[in-house]
Amino acid sequence: MAQLLILTPAVDSEVLPSLALLSHRVRQVPATSSQLINTPSCDLMMVDARKDLAAAKALCKILGNTGVSVPVIAIVTEGGLTAVTPEWNVADVVLVDAGPAEVDARIRLAIGRSSADSSNRKIQASGVVIDEVSYSAKVQGKPLDLTFKEFELLRFLASHPSRVFTREQLLSEVWGYDYFGGTRTVDVHVRRLRAKLGDLESLIGTVRNVGYRFTGHDDA
Predict the structure, then answer these.
(1) Which of 29, 49, 47, 48 is nearest to 39 (CA)?
(2) What is the rounded distance in angstroms from the CA atom of residue 62 to the CA atom of residue 18?
(3) What gap in Å lies between CA 153 and CA 107, rounded to an integer?
(4) CB of 44 within 8 A of CB of 69?
(5) Cβ pair 42, 4 in contact under 8 A
């Protein structure tokens, strides 16, 4: 049994009638941008795209761009199928008149694919777990309070264990080619990151006269 959240312009028991025949817990909320700020926890979201396709598409794109970690399924009419494209950023679509078996299968498959993808997007090494989906990291089970750039630096180094990167390379990969600051900013972020890693600060090793690398040993 999954927790489902339906984003719809108006509460309507006919959004997807087949859900009433399934055991999933269903909650409907207004399909507004303000509602997305405090979205209730769920295993899967459904967007009501039966009538206003443009608004539904915009909402789906917002959900995708804000990093929602659960799959999104669009509920459409048969005529609306032709309007759904990859730009919608949805895991699947389901027809409003689909039977309970089909609806249940689409829900299970979407959640299953999402869980597998989330597992594949976690980096685990030397007591550090980095979740690329939720932009979070833990050390020995304790959450790290990282800024975005600190997270990106840790993620990049941990994605290439033992490989040495110069400060210039890290600036290019983490900060981007359009960054005009000096290489000192890399040293500053490494120092802050090490402080937050605490006892595991040596995971970020210094290779003298070259740069930094992610390692399980202290090479500083």
Answers:
(1) 29
(2) 27
(3) 35
(4) no
(5) yes
| d(C-alpha 131, C-alpha 116), whole Å | 13
pLDDT tens per residue, the chain (220 residues)?
A: 899 999 998 877 689 999 999 999 999 988 876 666 667 788 999 999 999 999 999 999 888 776 677 899 999 999 999 999 999 989 999 999 999 999 999 999 999 887 766 555 678 877 888 887 778 888 888 899 999 899 999 989 988 888 999 998 998 888 875 666 678 899 999 999 999 998 889 999 999 989 999 985 444 3
Ramachandran angles phi, psi of 95, nearest 5°: -75, 145
> Can you tell me the distance from the alpha carbon of 58 to that of 9, in angstroms, rounded to the nearest whole number?
13
pTM higher than 0.70: no
**Residue that has been written with the tokens 């249940």 in this structure:** 104
